């Protein structure tokens, strides 16, 4: 292990260096607000990075997110720092800001159903499963310090252990809720194959499979309430905690996205608004780390990971308070050393932290304290660890960045430390927008490849459809979006995807107005393509058009008709539908470009006139497909794909990056994360159209007020711009009306059938 440059001694200005091995016995930064404990923590993280040790950082306030901003060489040099070490840090560090629930940074999620690792001994397995049960208890908002919370925790422990042991599929919230509500019936149904026969007695089933009497463990009313709370996490915003982004996995977190880099993973908790969910998320991170430790081969002499928690008081309060993450973090501090993990924490409220956990830290950085209760707590802590009690007298006089370093592995006496200047920026906590701006596109791509596409989303959507009384007919697996809509099975909770080619069968059976509107637009585009192809081929025959333009018109039209034909003849084949959908999406921008080209020809080159009737139809068709492309682009922006934040790149590079993001095809995982439902898109479309129409009428009113005749506004040989706008808005209103009318007709047809 390498040496860590921590700062200088305040008594003689000599450099304070310590081997990174001191971190194997853990460390703590203690000090009141403004003492510099967060700066000291950043120094430790920077030095660990220079020693090749990746970090997992819990950042409750956004202070640690600024690690992604490097300090300038000039500033470091002026403050007495080493520019060469700063440069080395910049070269090695790979700072990733992870944002639960949001895509501002790198989205991250947790898998609450992940079982503890195999091969644990009995004691470890019991502990691990108990922590899983504690997580679900906390998630269901039960206080585990109260009798009911303890009952729920024990009940969930038995449910989780036995469902997993017996191979029952209770690995999503809806399934778990069913087991919780009716444990005897659910276990009996899954463990017996007596189809059509009378259900066996519970006593027989429990004896055969070694099951406890679940219903005696928890009253029915509590089971019903617990089941309701658990099931609520299968839909809505809550599900994003489990489905939005990269699943928490320590091996993924310590893996560099770029060769030769050392990851610094900052878990930015500000994106979680609920305090209960924050506690649960921290607990699940701690559980994942604990499980990884148990399954990880290392040695006490090697450091594989630095685990740092800032402002730990809410998560590690003194007894008898016991929030969800406390037991796990205590276990990590107790056992981490033998698994190659260093645990480091920081707090400004020593009296509000369990001193038994603080006592596990062999190295202490003690900053300024003025409150007697905090000084008394530090004194007690030093007494427990055999430290020098005399240094507590100096604590009220310490300035920012000044510490008493107590580390028996470095020095028998406390070291009066002035921490060094940071190699990274230090300032106000990062906002969500700053996180978004400073998350590189390269890291977003790396994370996107590791993002989850949880099947629980599909399950929850189906459950929601049944609950809402919508059509729940089976859709072939692998179909979504336009393909599913063509089978009349897309509900309003599904993400809307744009396809400008094919999908015409949705008009016949579709239940979603937005998809039907897209089908109508695609039908219109197809007719316009065929009509224009015939006219251009005739012009080529007459010698007024070059052959390559006629060939292009034929190729585009043939491709669109081929897709429509394949969908019609292969609609029964789910895999072929999926492949056709991918092919269509690849070519749809070419279709849009060709239609725009025809519009340009019509209005700017009289030699290639298409005729008045076709010109109007072409104009409406282009307007409709442009509308859907705008919807798609807007949803990509919502996904955070337009990353224009790099401060060092020029304008041309930023534009190129933005255009590359805009034209990238949405992946299925992206669609699942975006969750832009048809109902939401329709609502936004109506609002925007109503606003623009109101502005149009206001313009007409102003025009009339200025003394212009109505015939001058809405008539004339040159068709004024207001008339063209009225035509555009009218066509969109017609599209919406036609889509909703067809949906109503399809619904009545289904009911009568």
Short note summarizing the structure:
The chain is of the alpha/beta class. Strand 1 (3-9) and strand 2 form a beta hairpin.
Walk me through what this model shows.
The structure is a single chain. By secondary structure, this protein is of the alpha/beta class. The chain folds into 3 domains: 3-110 and 260-438, Rossmann fold (3-Layer(aba) Sandwich); 122-240; 475-752, no CATH class. The protein contains 30 helices and 13 strands. Strands 2-1-13-12-11-3-10-9-4-8-5-6-7 form a 13-stranded mixed β-sheet.
Annotation keywords:
30 helices, Rossmann fold, 13-stranded mixed sheet, single chain, 13 strands, 753 residues, alpha/beta, 9% strand
How do the strands and helices of this protein lay out in sequence?
Layout: E1 3-9, E2 15-19, E3 27-30, H1 37-50, E4 55-59, H2 73-78, H3 83-92, E5 93-100, E6 106-109, H4 122-139, H5 147-165, H6 173-181, H7 183-191, H8 202-209, H9 214-217, H10 220-231, H11 240-243, E7 246-247, H12 250-253, E8 262-268, H13 275-294, E9 305-309, H14 326-335, E10 341-347, H15 355-358, E11 363-366, H16 372-385, E12 402-406, E13 415-419, H17 432-437, H18 441-448, H19 455-467, H20 481-486, H21 506-509, H22 513-541, H23 547-569, H24 574-604, H25 612-639, H26 651-663, H27 668-674, H28 678-705, H29 710-714, H30 721-752
Helix pairs in contact: 1-3, 4-5, 4-13, 6-7, 6-10, 13-14, 22-23, 22-25, 22-30, 23-24, 24-25, 28-30
């Amino acid at each position: 292990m390498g040496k860590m440059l921590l700062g200088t001694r305040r008594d003689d200005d000599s450099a304070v260096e310590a081997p990174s091995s001191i971190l194997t016995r853990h460390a703590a930064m203690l000090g009141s607000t403004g003492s510099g404990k967060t700066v000291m923590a950043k120094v430790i993280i920077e030095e660990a990075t220079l020693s090749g040790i990746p970090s997992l950082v819990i950042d409750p306030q956004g202070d640690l997110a600024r690690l992604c901003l490097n300090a300038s060489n000039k500033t470091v040099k002026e403050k007495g720092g080493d520019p060469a070490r700063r440069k080395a840090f910049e070269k090695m560090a790979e700072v990733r800001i992870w944002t639960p629930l949001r895509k501002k940074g790198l989205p991250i999620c947790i898998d609450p159903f992940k079982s503890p690792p195999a091969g644990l001994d009995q004691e470890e397995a019991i502990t691990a499963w108990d922590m899983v049960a504690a997580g679900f208890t906390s998630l269901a908002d039960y206080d585990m310090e109260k009798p009911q919370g303890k009952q729920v925790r024990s009940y969930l422990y038995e449910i989780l252990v036995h469902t997993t042991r017996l191979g029952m599929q209770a690995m999503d919230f809806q399934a778990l809720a069913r087991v919780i509500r009716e444990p005897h019936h659910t276990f009996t149904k899954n463990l017996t194959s007596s189809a059509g026969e009378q259900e066996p007695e519970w006593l027989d089933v429990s004896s055969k499979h070694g099951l406890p009497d679940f219903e005696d463990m928890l009253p029915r009313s509590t089971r019903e309430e617990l089941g309701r709370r658990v099931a609520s996490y299968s839909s809505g915003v809550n599900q994003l905690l489990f489905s939005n982004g990269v699943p928490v996995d320590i091996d993924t977190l310590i893996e560099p996205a770029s060769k030769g880099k050392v990851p610094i993973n900052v878990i930015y908790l500000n994106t979680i608004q609920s305090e209960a969910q924050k506690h649960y998320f921290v607990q699940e991170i701690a559980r994942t780390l604990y499980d990884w430790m148990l399954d990880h081969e290392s040695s006490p002499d090697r450091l594989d990971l630095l685990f740092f928690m800032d402002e730990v008081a809410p998560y590690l309060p003194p007894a008898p308070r016991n929030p969800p993450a406390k037991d796990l973090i205590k276990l990590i501090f107790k056992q981490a050393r033998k698994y190659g993990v260093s645990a480091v924490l920081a707090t400004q409220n020593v009296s509000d932290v369990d001193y038994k956990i603080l006592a596990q830290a062999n190295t202490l950085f003690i900053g300024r304290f003025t409150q007697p209760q905090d000084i008394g707590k530090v004194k007690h802590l030093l007494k427990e660890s055999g430290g020098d009690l005399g240094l507590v007298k100096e604590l009220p006089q310490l300035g920012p960045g000044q510490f008493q370093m107590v580390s028996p592995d470095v020095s028998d006496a406390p070291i009066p430390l002035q921490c060094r200047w940071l190699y990274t920026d230090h300032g106000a906590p990062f906002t969500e927008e700053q996180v978004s701006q400073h998350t590189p596109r390269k890291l977003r791509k790396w994370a996107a490849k590791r993002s989850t596409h949880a099947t629980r989303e599909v399950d929850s959507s189906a459950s929601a459809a049944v609950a809402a009384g919508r059509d729940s007919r089976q859709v072939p697996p692998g179909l979504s979006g336009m393909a599913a809509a063509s089978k009349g099975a897309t509900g309003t909770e599904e993400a809307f995807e744009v396809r400008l080619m094919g999908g015409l069968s949705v008009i016949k059976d579709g239940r979603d107005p937005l998809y039907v509107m897209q089908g109508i637009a695609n039908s219109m585009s197809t007719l316009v393509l065929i009509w224009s192809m015939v006219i251009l081929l005739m012009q080529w025959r007459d010698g007024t058009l070059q052959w390559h333009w006629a060939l292009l018109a034929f190729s585009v039209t043939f491709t669109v008709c081929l897709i429509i034909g394949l969908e019609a003849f292969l609609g029964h084949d789910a895999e072929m539908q999926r492949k056709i959908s991918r092919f269509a999406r690849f070519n749809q921008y070419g279709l849009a470009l060709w239609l725009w080209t025809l519009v340009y020809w019509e209005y700017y080159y009289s030699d290639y006139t298409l005729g008045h009737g076709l010109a109007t139809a072409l104009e409406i068709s282009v307007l409709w497909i442009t509308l859907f492309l705008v919807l798609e682009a807007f949803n990509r922006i919502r996904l955070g794909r337009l990353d224009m934040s790099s401060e060092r790149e020029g304008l041309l590079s930023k534009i190129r990056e933005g255009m590359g993001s805009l034209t990238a095809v949405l992946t299925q995982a992206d669609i699942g994360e975006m969750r832009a439902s048809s109902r939401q898109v329709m609502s936004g479309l109506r609002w925007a159209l109503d606003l623009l129409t109101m502005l149009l009428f206001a313009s007409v009113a102003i025009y009339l007020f200025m003394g212009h005749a109505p015939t001058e506004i809405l008539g004339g040989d040159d068709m004024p711009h207001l008339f063209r706008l009225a035509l555009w808005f009218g066509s969109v209103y017609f599209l919406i009306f036609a889509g909703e009318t067809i949906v109503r007709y399809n619904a009545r047809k289904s009911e009568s059938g």
